[in-house]
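Quiz preparation item.
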């Protein structure tokens, strides 16, 4: 029982820390973001936000903010805002590790696989340890 307590507390703190930063203006978008809202068994993901923002429309990932544009004063919600404890049953929960239930896996990995079909030399990660490095 005691062995489970420390990992549980650390996981809870990681979720709380990730959800504390609910929104920032699009004009302050980070070049890199650490996706740690839903850390469970795998390590957090360091996401190259700036690299993606050059080629992908903001609303592709920030799908609840259809009019979002880079550089705007609009407050941008983090993924964890909706996907840590969803209000709707049909909203994917990011703590799911499944490739068919986790919103990051559904969006990110599927997009990367599509890019790999277009360009076999792409470096877009599709395997677990490519995004979740071993600690």
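Solution:
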């Amino acid at each position: 029982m005691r062995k489970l307590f420390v990992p549980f507390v650390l996981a809870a703190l990681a979720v709380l820390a990730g959800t504390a930063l609910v929104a920032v203006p699009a004009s302050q978008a980070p070049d890199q973001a650490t996706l740690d809202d839903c850390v469970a068994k795998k390590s957090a993901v360091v996401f190259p936000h700036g690299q993606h923002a050059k080629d992908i429309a903001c609303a592709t990932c920030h799908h609840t903010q259809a009019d979002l544009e880079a550089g705007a004063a609009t407050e941008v919600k983090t993924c964890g805002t909706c996907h840590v404890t969803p209000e709707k049953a049909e909203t994917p929960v990011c703590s799911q590790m499944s490739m068919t239930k986790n919103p990051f896996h559904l969006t990110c990995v599927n997009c990367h696989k599509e890019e790999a079909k277009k360009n076999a030399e792409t470096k877009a990660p599709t395997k677990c340890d490519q995004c979740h490095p071993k600690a």
